[in-house]
From TrEMBL:
Belongs to the short-chain dehydrogenases/reductases (SDR) family. InterPro entries: NAD(P)-bd_dom_sf, Sc_DH/Rdtase_CS, SDR_fam, SDR_oxidoreductase. It comes from Yeosuana aromativorans. This is Short-chain dehydrogenase/reductase. PANTHER family: SHORT CHAIN DEHYDROGENASE, SHORT-CHAIN DEHYDROGENASE_REDUCTASE FAMILY PROTEIN. The lineage of its organism: Bacteria, Pseudomonadati, Bacteroidota, Flavobacteriia, Flavobacteriales. Keywords: Oxidoreductase. GO terms for molecular function: oxidoreductase activity.
Length: 286
């Protein structure tokens, strides 16, 4: 039986990914900071008789990651697939967002991935086999306000994943980057709430309006979970995997612009920006 370790499984994409792997017959180690809050998840495991073990792990902590992964390896000997999903988001302008917010985002979204990856890699390398799937974002390609801090963490994650893929391919270890667009998760709902934030920078609130408009026809996190499972089950060496109806189109749209055009689009007046969103995406973000 194949084993998978998934981080950040308390809700959203992580929760649905754990269930998808469990239903596919994997032995799943679902990790999260607070297992005591996972009562609904635990009930689903019981109801469906899934081989899912919930473990406490805080990816921000060297001690927590070592303790959890050492316990799994001691009992089961290996982890075939690692899904680095745990992530947080803080939104706001560069000037107004606190340094603590910048640090906490990098601690979880970047250093947290490194902690888990570095702990799992020796056993995968020894076995000459493995798959590491890192959940990044469209924001790993595209940076715009008020997601500058979040995008910085995802740009960093994409960069280190690309380097890692080069290092571990000779050991038959696959690395994949999953890039969701706007998915109906608590994180997206939080960005949507930026619509009401009072900021000296108009980009902060109006980008929340774009999320609000997109979430009127929501894309469910199960779509991302299914893609992650598909990558694991396949023999693909493809590095980047955009997910969701807006992911690839938005990446391509950005790629069609010069950097200066992109900056001008985001720096436009409210009226011009809202008109452009409606014209380009068919969304009323007002």
């Amino acid at each position: 039986m194949k084993t998978v370790l998934i981080t950040g499984t308390s809700k959203g994409i992580g929760l649905e990914t754990a269930l998808a792997f469990g239903r596919a017959g994997y032995k799943v180690f679902a990790t999260m900071r607070n297992p005591s809050k996972a009562s609904d998840f635990k009930q689903k495991i019981i109801n469906e008789s899934l081989d899912i073990t919930i473990s406490e792990m805080d990816v921000d902590s060297d001690v927590s990651v070592k303790k959890c992964i050492d316990s799994i390896i001691d009992k089961h000997g290996k982890v075939d697939v690692l899904v680095n999903n745990a992530g947080i988001e803080r939104h706001g302008s560069i000037e107004e967002l606190s340094m603590e917010d910048f640090k906490s985002i990098m601690e979880t979204n970047y250093f947290g991935v490194l902690r888990c990856t570095k702990k799992i890699l020796p056993i995968m390398r020894k076995n000459q086999n493995g798959c590491i799937i890192n959940v990044a974002s469209v924001s790993g390609h595209i940076s715009n306000s008020p997601l500058g801090a979040y995008a910085a963490s995802k740009f960093a994650l994409e960069a280190v994943s690309e380097a890692l893929a080069q290092e571990v391919k000779p050991f038959d270890i696959r690395v994949a980057i999953v890039e969701p667009g706007i998915i109906n998760t608590q994180m997206a709902q939080d960005i949507k709430s930026a619509k009401t934030i009072n900021s000296i920078y108009p980009q902060v609130s109006r980008f929340g309006g774009l999320f609000a408009a997109s979430l009127k026809t929501p894309t469910q996190p199960t779509l991302v979970a299914d893609k992650i499972l598909e990558i694991s089950e396949s023999n693909t060496w493809k590095l980047r995997h955009p997910v969701g109806p807006d992911s690839e189109p938005f990446i391509q749209w950005r790629a069609s612009m010069s950097d200066e055009q992109w900056i001008d689009w985001n720096a436009a007046s409210n009226e011009d920006w809202y008109k452009s969103v409606e014209q380009d995406f068919g969304l009323n973000a007002r």
